[in-house]
Amino acid sequence: MRNGSSLVLFSVFMLSVSGWSAEPGATPTAKSGIDRALQWFQTQQQTDGSWEKDVGITSLVVTAMARSPRKYREADGPFMRKAVKYILDAQKPDGGIYEMQLSAYCTSVALMALSSLENASYEMNIKQAQQYLLGLQCDEEEGYSTDDRFYGGVGYGNDLRPDLSNLQLVLEALKESDTPQNAEVWSRAISFLQRCQNRSESNDQAWAGNDGGFVYDPGHSNQDIPSSYGSMTYAGVKSYIYAGLTRDDPRVKAAYDWILTHYTVEENPGMGQAGLFYYYHTFAKTLAVLGDLEITFPSGEKRVWGTDLSEKLLSLQKPEGYWINEQSSRWWENNKVLATCYAVLALVETSRAYGW
Questions:
Q1: Domain count of the chain?
Q2: Model-level pTM?
Q3: Does the residue 115 lie in any domain?
Q4: pLDDT digits (tens, 9 = 90+) for 224-278
Q5: Which range of residues forms the domain containing residue 290?
Q6: 54-58: long-range contacts (C-beta < 8 A, 24 or more apart)?
């Protein structure tokens, strides 16, 4: 049970960011920030129902709309119906939902969008997308053995090199579309996840260190040396939990200790401003999955992560309602629609975690 000061802090947070009783002209709240972003999204929609004429970005917008406090559905208007049609029209005979590239990313976020709509008529589309994603995992069917460093991973497909960014999205999509927990995808994924973690006790790769954090793929971190960084470490923790590990597992505990040491909403730790909004989304999703409303540091200090993240995101939102990474264009975060998707979904995950 929280102590008195923590209860006061939590109460102040609920009053300041929930937004359910915000007065006109009051300081922006998480809910009002989400609403402004959703309204801005509608000004950016293409005549074909898409955003950016891209099924991945369109799927992220639909997911944000569907999971927002407004819970938009197809019955709410053509802006939703046309967007969903655009997604469904992109589904291939093999079950994948993509256009020309990034098939794992696009199918994953499309699967999350369709699942978020809670519409039974998409059941077959969802099952086909699940099967497509399951088929992307590097396993025995492709000739991989458990000794291969990429065993259990998922990649872009064109470079034959799996990575944690692709895998974490695939696992999230499979989890949220109710893939059975006894499916082999989870145990196979653990093999790959271990090889992305700087923990020599569970990582059989020679490069592995011992700080507990995660890198982009076995032996690579988008840096000059395989150093752990923020977005991948949060992604690793979330993926471990989805795969069935508990937070008491030493692999999870080691990664969580890294998070405590590098906790911040000012940057993507280890990457600076690169991938910042991706980091915010993964930060929120992971801490929500863990179920902690407070972060407790070894010193005994406590932080309400929802307060930290919401206040930071709202301070970065533009008057028109969008977000953009003005410090780094890496990974397309200078695209207003994409950055806004990440920001809205981060606020939505925060709102769900805190129950407002």
A1: 2
A2: 0.92
A3: yes
A4: 557 999 999 999 999 999 999 999 999 999 999 999 999 999 999 999 999 999 9
A5: 276-356
A6: 54/99, 55/86, 55/87, 55/90, 55/97, 55/98, 55/99, 55/106, 55/110, 56/98, 56/102, 56/105, 56/106, 56/109, 56/110, 57/335, 57/337, 57/338, 57/341, 58/83, 58/86, 58/87
